[in-house]
Amino acid sequence: RVREADSPISLDKVRLGMTSSDSPASDSPERTPAVQQPVQQPERGARAGGRKSHHRSPSRIVARDGHFRYPGAWRGSGLAAPVFSLRSCDSVGAGDFVDLRTLVDVAHAGGMNVVQVLPVNDTTVHNMWWDSYPYSSVSVFALHPLYLRIQQVVSESARIAGPEHANRFASLQAEVNKAKAALDLKEVDYEATVKVKMSVARRCFEAVKTPFLNSAEFSEFLAENAAWLKPYAVFCALRDLFGTAQHWRWGSLGSDNGAGTVTRLSQPGSEVYNTVALHYFVQFHLDAQLRAAAAHAKRVGVILKGDLPIGVDKASVDTWMYPNLFRMHTSTGAPPDDFDANGQNWGFPTYNWEEMSKDGYGWWRARMSHLERYFSAMRIDHVLGFFRIWELPAHTRVGRMGRFRPSVPIRRHELEQRGLWFVDRLCEPRVTSATLREIFGNRDGEVAGRFMEETGHDGHLPDGRAIHTYRFKAEFSTEEGLLGSDAFKIRDGSPDWLVEETEAMRKGLLHLQHNVCLLRDPEDPDAFYPRIEMQKTSSFNELEGWSKDALNWLYDDYFGARQDKLWRENARRTLPALMNCTGQLVCGEDLGMVPPCVPPVLDELGILGLRIQRMPHEPGEFGRPNRYPYATVCSPSCHDTTTTRAWYEADRHRRARYAHQVLGMQGDGQLASCFPPPMAYRVEHVEEGSGAQRRRTSVGSVGAGDLSGVGADGAGDTGFIERQHPPPDKCEPHVMRAIVRQHMASPSALAIFPAQDLLALEPSYAQRPAEEETINDPTNNRHYWRFRLHVRLEDMLANSEWLADIREMVNESGRVDGKMTT
Fold first, then answer.
1. What is the DSSP string of 385-452?
2. Which residues on adjacent β-strands are paired with residue 431?
3. How many CB atoms sit inside 10 A of residue 467's CB?
4. pLDDT number for residue 61
5. I want to staple 470 with a disulfide (CB 3.0 to 4.6 A). Which of 452, 598, 653, 789 is the partner?
6. What is residue 409's predicted lDDT score, i.e. its pLDDT?
7. Do 645 and 655 contact (CB within 8 A), yes or no?
């Protein structure tokens, strides 16, 4: 950007909420803005060589948006936790926005300067625990009522109502206290928690409706947010009225007339206005509580980092109001990988990028600008979706039968040029009597009779029997038709053998549906896409060698060089629209099947990538934090993986490889149980004491390779544990400390640690079974997001030894206050 000013100005407004007063002194040459003094020109009407003008033209200042300048390499650290997982003395059933203030204090006390949360948008579609999925937004602007500190709503409403209503609000407060005790559970009871908070909020609203709606504070809030707030509130009212969020079932109030419906029903006096105004009330308080938490974070110098979901629910305000921006006949997901053989189907409609581009991606820009109201940094979920998205037909239930959009397809003439004239054979599920016998055994006849139609025969078996070919009956030809049929319904109490047989038949039939080599484009009869992992199908393996070679060449070309230019250009169009409307630090979740064009584009746009150690971007089984690029966020685990403790303890052989290769365990012919510090760290003294009472002090700089002479008995200044044993079966605190320190020492701009990983540094906190601390299982699209921390925030804040341990690791890594130390 080029900006004109009468005098040079500082451009060092870092995308972290830093003000000029927070910036270091301006005497560093690295911070000097690029100022180009204009060439002096004669005044208008004056001849060349005449008197010089005393008028000074404005300086031209060029700001490079993709980067910021800072003395040394800025490096920060922080912790990550879903808001619903927080537990405090005052939270009711789940963490809330007021708890964020205490979490910020915990991070600050531990010497860290970032708090990262999952999406906090409203997800109320089904009015049940399915809505616990935080990435399926019903509105990309509205906040979730789950995060309301309801006690503050009661006390504020009591203040407005006046002392004459004191008994009414005292009763409400007693009800909240009772619910708080009942919902103080190991995990979140999503339905009960939302029900309590909305019930109390409704009665508070009814008591103060008139003064609230007439207040200057609400009028200002409504004026600032009317563009999204009115559609959201009307949507919620209609959702509750019709008993479904599927707006295409609302008749004349559906998406064909969304704007007109909002205008009419948001007017005072409309038949649903009372419900509309209730949602105004709830959003007003949610906004105030989150902004207060954000303001507190800025005061103490902690960055609040939000999360921008890649998709929205099909039954959402946004698809109701702006149906032209979405491809409602499709679904978004992720292709198969080592973590999920079937891929993922998230159920979100894909985007109509062509339509979005007509107003400069205004919908996206509005999202980013609104999130800046609360957050100083932002994680873009599945940033790969801005290059290309894995698009699935709406009838699919798993993620295998998708293709990338946009992408350059394989054209019919390309198939014909390679002799692949038999397109139907490549696109239809390959089902033969031999295949049925192989998958279903002696139940092959039953499967053929119930689900198939015979289409002919294709050769003979060695014993002379004909090989019959089949296709699925029409009612079972899609995943939706097959998996939603009554064929697989089992009565409660059925014997285990029947359950197992039915499940095996379901899986076998789904496998057959996926037994194709190519996918047709329903919008272009001459366009085709290779079915991902087609080489694993019998449809492919039954082809002749030359056909396999031709398909393999097209497959490699489709998933490789053919798409690079298109995907690069797509990201360069879409991502800058988000970047240019916000001052936030932007980070991108770039895990999965990463095309070669992604890293350079993220780098040129100044978007930090993500590095999870067990999901390496480079060749090898494990990521090496000391090799991570600076423009990354590193973490040992995340919400989509098991915790580091659970992962470490799950596989004995992997644990040994990890301990030896990554943590640098030493030993004579075998691994030992002591973890030396990362290369950039120092050897430790361990003073007398145990557990959290041990204190560490530096005694000199060494590398991991210098530790071979340390005594096996742990004697001497180093105090190292005996080296003659394999790695501990459990991820004990000293093991977790080695992992945390290694990530702290990485070159990454940010080192973010899930709260569970940091709690594992304290022996008394690490007693909970590790498998109970998993937030999400990506292989289960009906996972219940209900994990809750077992330690209260107040107890964390009071644990000075634990916080001092974290603070020391921050200090020795050079991440003190986000600055490099020398």
1. GGT-EEEEETT-SSSSS-EEES--PEEHHHHHHTT---HHHHHS--EEHHHHHHHHGGGHHHHHHHHE
2. 470
3. 14
4. 53
5. 452
6. 97
7. no
